[in-house]
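User: Okay, second chain of the day. Same drill as before: sequence in, structure tokens out.
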Amino acid sequence: MSKKRVLISASMVAGVLGFGYVIATAKTKQDLETVSRVDLARYTGQWYEIARLPNGFQKKCADSVSANYTLRSDGSIKVVNRCRKASGAFTTATGKAKIVNKTTNAKLKVTFFWPFYGDYWILDLGPNYEYSVVGNRSRKYLWILSRTPQIDEGLYQRLLANMQRKGFDTTKMIRTVQSAAVVRSSER
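Assistant: Same drill. Structure tokens below.
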């Protein structure tokens, strides 16, 4: 075999291996493990946003961000998101979530503007459904939710570290102020 052929063959092998590495890296970037099982009846109810990655559709939310999920008779979930704007007025968005993976119930698609759906993947969940971490496979969206307006700082830091290991840029997380929720709970 000539020296030229050996060089061409070696560069072709390196190119193929490099291409395979790019495919493997791209696939790994897309892989995102969810929790193994979600009991939707336990998951529904009131959730408070603890933190989120910045996103365009929540840029008017100044504080007091919450979500309420209700099971519907057709198996989907009614989603009602609420936040207070800088003006002090509350705004509400109502949407619908459908279960994508019925084996685990951990992968859902949510829409607020039909026919556009976004991934809602449950990536972490407290043993008593006291907190939840939700994101999507592109790692562009991430929310930390809790049944209470605040969570323990140690837990928050552990959740951030876990999501960082999963490929999310947690340095951009915005902590949510829950002033209206705190006021409501102190009035009881």
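The two ends are 86 Å apart (CA to CA).

User: Thanks, on to the next one.
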